[in-house]
Amino acid sequence: MKSSRRSFLEAGLGLPVVLNAAPSFAGVLQSSETPAVKDSSFDPWIEIFPGNLRHNVQEIVRRAGSRPILAVIKNNGYGLGVTNVAQILDPQPEVFGFAVVKFHEAVSLRDAGVRKPILLLGPFDEINLADCVARNIMPMVYTPLGPALDKIAAKTQKPVPLHICIDTGIGRVGVPYHEAAPLVRDLASRKSVQIQGTMMTFTEDFDFDKEQLRRFNELCSSFESQGIALGRKHAASSFTLFQHPDAFLDMVRPGMAIYGIYSENEFRHTNVMELRPAVSLKARVIYVKKLRKGDSAGYNRAYLAKDDVWIATLPVGHADGWPRTAAKGAKVRINGQLYPVIASVSASHCIAEIGNQECVKIGDVATFFDSQLGSRPEDVSESCGASVYDLTMHLNPLLPRRII
Ligand SMILES: Cc1ncc(COP(=O)(O)O)c(C=O)c1O
Asked: Does the pTM of the predicted model rise above 0.85?
């Protein structure tokens, strides 16, 4: 089959409806200084489904007994684009606010007009802290920051709202629960501080989570019995939503479930929440050819054709966020059929094995993952061992995001 790139573009062959949709571009692509889109139609793109995001929020509300949701949208909104996700979820009354890790993400949300509370889970210095306060971004605190908070509050003449992070066993950030008392008492005693929340993170080890919750509850009760107001207590990620209803506390704090993806494959087979993937990765076939028996494909000749076989080259590689392990069992959907990814995933390409018929042509749309059974992110994860977190969070921020 002969089809040059130019003739394909001129003929507009097979252009999907999505190209007619008003594209929305995340992060740097939203800058007004960015020139009009220059992507060739063969370059990969990411589709975002706001209807599914809203559906998943409703499922979480149903599961969490109407508790408010602090939506975790860190790491570029799990790949969907941090401002895209926030702007879609901002009007949802069930979404109390947003949590991010990177300071610049918090700032970009305010710059994009997001008005709901923002919690910064990540690190900051004193200058960042003053910027946070100026932009109404709440810091997550676990070190003796009292004097710095006093200085800022003296300038603004308002207490600084913040959340305190307690480490009950994850050993990452947070003041260790057995050393937390002096810090919490110090913060609570300052006029410069308004404790709006107190939080912890589970290790997601089912049994140890129970011990973590016991530590947290005991500590919080002890503070509260001393008259210390801790604000909203929260701990529940997506895993907790499925596994520990006794840990929903005053607010839930999921990420992955919002994007409609089961954080653990076994959760798919429960009826706890019906989640619909809100993201898909697509690109067009750039080349179709026949390998003869004995021909090879991929670096290190990773694939050797046992017979004559048609293959399709796809312009998506690990630099786009498609994991290298995809060549170990993942499938891509082209024209409704699933085809195995073979050989190796290189930085910008991968190869699908089509079979003994040439049933795919240049320009056909290939879906790497979407919301259909067989090509959901969890299916890709199950087939090749890539984590669903890697599939979404590693999506290259420069790929265009199209809101469908
Ligand atoms: C502190 C914290 N809370 C909540 C979440 C949400 O986790 P998940 O995406 O598994 O729901 C994360 C994500 O890793 C996190 O770091």
From this structure: yes
